[in-house]
C-alpha cells in the first residue's frame, strides 16, 4: 500500500511538472510570436516578417518584400522555404518553425540559414498558395538588404 502511494505521488508530480513546462513553453512562444509580429511587420525599409505577412490577408494580393530565414531549398523544383527571423532566433534552428512560406524562385538559391529579403507576390500554383519571388537579396552586415 505504501509503495502504491509513493508511485502515485511521483506520477502526480511528473504530470504537474510536464503540464507546467508545456504551459510555460506555449506562453513564451506566444510572447515571441506577438513580439515578432509587432517588430517585424515593417522593418528594414518596407519589408515585413514571414508571420506578419501570412497573418495579414490584405498583403497577400500585393507585391511586398518579406524578410525571413531560408529553412530549406529544393533547387530542382525552384522552391525554398522561408521562416520568420524572430522564430528562427527563438528556436535557434530551422526545423521547429510552425509556419514556412513556400517561395518559388528561378534564380540561384541562397544557402539554408541565410537571412534574405524576398520581393514578390502570392499566387496559386497547382491548387496551393506560393510566394512568387521577383528578387532575393541577402541581409548585409548593417541589417539592410545587399544591393
Notes on the protein architecture:
- With 147 residues, this protein is α/β, with parallel strands linked by helices.
- The protein has a single domain (1-147), classed as Nucleic acid-binding proteins (OB fold (Dihydrolipoamide Acetyltransferase, E2P)).
- The chain has 3 helices and 6 strands.
- The protein has helices at 2-40, 50-54, 85-91; strands at 47-49, 64-74, 79-83, 101-104, 115-125, 128-138.
- A 5-stranded mixed barrel has the order 2-3-4-6-5.
- Strand 2 (64-74) and strand 3 form a beta hairpin.
- Helix 1 packs antiparallel against helix 3 (85-91).
- The longest helix has 39 residues, at 2-40.
Short description:
With 147 residues, this protein is of the alpha/beta class. It has 3 helices and 6 strands; from the N terminus they run αβαββαβββ.
Task: Jot down its keywords.
147 residues, OB fold (Dihydrolipoamide Acetyltransferase, E2P), single chain, 5-stranded mixed barrel, 3 helices, 6 strands
